[in-house]
Design the sequence.
């Protein structure tokens, strides 16, 4: 069989602590698998071509990343990616399970597979072989038994968190690689436009039965109203509930 035509989808990551741009961990693992299958995989990105994380992907061994159009907040990336994949006619598409930012939707590979008529398999930890139009893969979830599957191509695989660790980017390669911006049109995501977004708040600590801490004390000898107020004060103190408008 000829060498498989491999496409990898790359998103721009954001470090959860520093907020700085980085390679999305799942997509970096997908790229590592792509580079082990093909010396020249095709890389697609929808977003800002000036994002510094794209240079790190190039440093892993890519010659070029194709940046589709100029994406703005509220655009739906699925139709644009689907159209480009239809033109490329790949045997295999590799991606992470979810992005670091934005909607972080793990639905993208499923929607693409549905629109293109491809098979989709999630949580792929390894691709052992591709022959006779079929991929032999290992599916792995943390804490579960690994499964070896035979999947007919074309297909879309989402990389598992147990997939091979991506190689370190090489600085020289990251500078030599090119970002090729191509024209693309985007449809607005009208459903997402109706959502209300707010900064995340710290998750409350888990409360176990009989837990007493800080200035907490057993609710003994109180009237029902007094006990209710004490409970409400405790829940507000732990950020479990908030006053309306906060």
Sequence:
């Amino acid at each position: 069989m000829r060498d498989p035509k491999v496409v990898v989808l790359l998103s721009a990551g954001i470090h959860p602590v520093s907020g700085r741009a980085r390679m999305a961990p799942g997509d970096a693992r997908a790229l590592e698998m792509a580079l082990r299958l093909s010396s020249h995989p095709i890389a697609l990105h929808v977003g800002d071509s000036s994002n510094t994380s794209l240079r790190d992907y190039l440093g892993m061994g890519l010659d070029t990343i194709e940046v589709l159009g100029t994406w703005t907040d509220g655009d739906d990336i699925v139709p644009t990616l689907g159209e480009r994949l239809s033109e490329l006619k790949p045997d295999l598409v590799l991606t992470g399970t979810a992005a670091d930012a934005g909607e972080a939707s793990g639905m993208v590979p499923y929607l693409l597979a549905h629109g293109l008529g491809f098979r989709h398999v999630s949580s792929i930890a390894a691709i052992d072989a591709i022959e006779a139009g079929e991929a032999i893969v290992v599916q792995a979830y943390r804490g579960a038994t690994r499964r070896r599957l035979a999947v007919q191509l074309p297909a879309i695989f989402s990389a598992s968190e147990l997939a091979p660790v991506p190689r370190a980017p090489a600085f020289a390669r990251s500078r030599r690689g090119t970002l090729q911006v191509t024209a693309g049109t985007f449809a607005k995501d009208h459903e997402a436009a109706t959502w209300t977004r707010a900064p995340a708040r710290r998750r409350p600590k888990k409360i176990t039965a009989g837990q007493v801490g800080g200035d907490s004390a057993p609710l003994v000898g109180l009237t029902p109203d007094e006990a209710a107020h004490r409970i409400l004060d405790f829940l507000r103190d732990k950020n479990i509930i908030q006053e309306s408008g906060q």
About this structure: The first strand starts at residue 6 and ends at 10. Residues 200-246 form one domain. The mean pLDDT is 86. The CA atoms of residues 123 and 160 lie 4 Å apart.
